[in-house]
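Hi all, posting the design record for the shared folder.

TITLE: backbone redesign
STEP: 1 of 1
STRUCTURE INPUT:
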């Protein structure tokens, strides 16, 4: 027959083992919870990093688009400059042609003035020739 004290202590030992098992299970659950929280935190860090990466990528796209717009504006300005240069060249060529015409006119004017001088000289000689009885052979 088992004495009352033995039963009491055996019951107490069983309860103690149960408490220990429960405490260890609780510790394991807490550790699992901590690990899950760490994973969760790492995921949140990953999410924040991914969001930052997306923002940087979007900023990069905006900078690239701005660069494309600036390059297109530069091309348009260069084309306008080329057109203005072509206009300038055509004006210069027209100016050269007008200068050549002007020079030819000056030559004509000088020839005409020389002709007038010869004609006046001829008229003077003719007047003298008439006076002396000869004709002008200009």
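Okay, here is what came back for every position:
SEQUENCE:
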């Amino acid at each position: 027959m088992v004495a009352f004290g033995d039963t009491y202590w055996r019951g107490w030992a069983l309860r103690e083992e149960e408490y220990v098992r429960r405490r260890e299970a609780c510790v394991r659950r807490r550790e699992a919870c901590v690990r899950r929280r760490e994973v969760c935190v790492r995921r949140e860090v990953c999410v924040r990093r991914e969001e930052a990466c997306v923002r940087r990528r979007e900023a990069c796209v905006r900078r690239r688009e701005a660069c494309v717009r600036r390059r297109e504006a530069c091309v348009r300005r260069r084309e306008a400059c080329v057109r203005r240069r072509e206009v300038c060249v055509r004006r210069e060529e027209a100016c050269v042609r007008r200068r050549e015409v002007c020079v030819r006119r000056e030559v004509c004017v000088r020839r005409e003035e020389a002709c007038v001088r010869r004609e006046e000289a001829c008229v003077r000689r003719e007047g003298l020739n008439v006076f002396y009885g000869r004709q002008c052979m200009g």
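COMMENT: The radius of gyration is 58 Å.
Let me know if anyone wants the other runs.
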